[in-house]
């Protein structure tokens, strides 16, 4: 799987959705911004939580978006792997399959940098 293609396709779908229901997506965007900018946890920590949830619920588009955010935030492969380890502990077998995808995504996105 090409994770850069997943990111492009995801963004295209989101643009269509945002144009279709702007009154809803605008508010969701505001909540997303508020949760990332406020509170006691830093942005990278919050993205680690989001990645763990994305793996646990098996959302490939979410994995791609949150790994990309973590790469931009300076996350290391070891940090990603540590988060994935905790996700495996909480999510069992299905999380194991998607944790591999998340690590593959990280490797692809950092290889291009």
From TrEMBL:
Coiled coil regions, renumbered to chain: none
Gene Ontology terms for molecular function: peroxiredoxin activity
Pfam families linked to this entry: CMD
Record InterPro entries: AhpD-like (IPR029032), AhpD_core (IPR004675), CMD-like (IPR003779)
Carboxymuconolactone decarboxylase-like domain location: 22-103
Name of protein: Carboxymuconolactone decarboxylase family protein
């Amino acid at each position: 799987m090409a994770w850069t293609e997943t990111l492009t396709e995801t963004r295209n779908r989101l643009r269509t959705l945002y144009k279709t229901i702007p009154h809803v997506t605008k508010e969701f965007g505001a909540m997303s911004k508020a949760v990332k900018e406020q509170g006691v946890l830093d942005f990278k920590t919050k993205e680690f939580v989001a990645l763990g949830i994305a793996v646990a619920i098996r959302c490939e588009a979410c994995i791609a978006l949150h790994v990309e955010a973590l790469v931009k935030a300076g996350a290391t492969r070891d940090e990603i792997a540590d988060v994935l380890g905790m996700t495996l502990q909480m999510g069992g077998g299905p999380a194991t399959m998607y944790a591999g995808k998340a690590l593959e995504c990280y490797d692809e996105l950092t290889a291009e940098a």
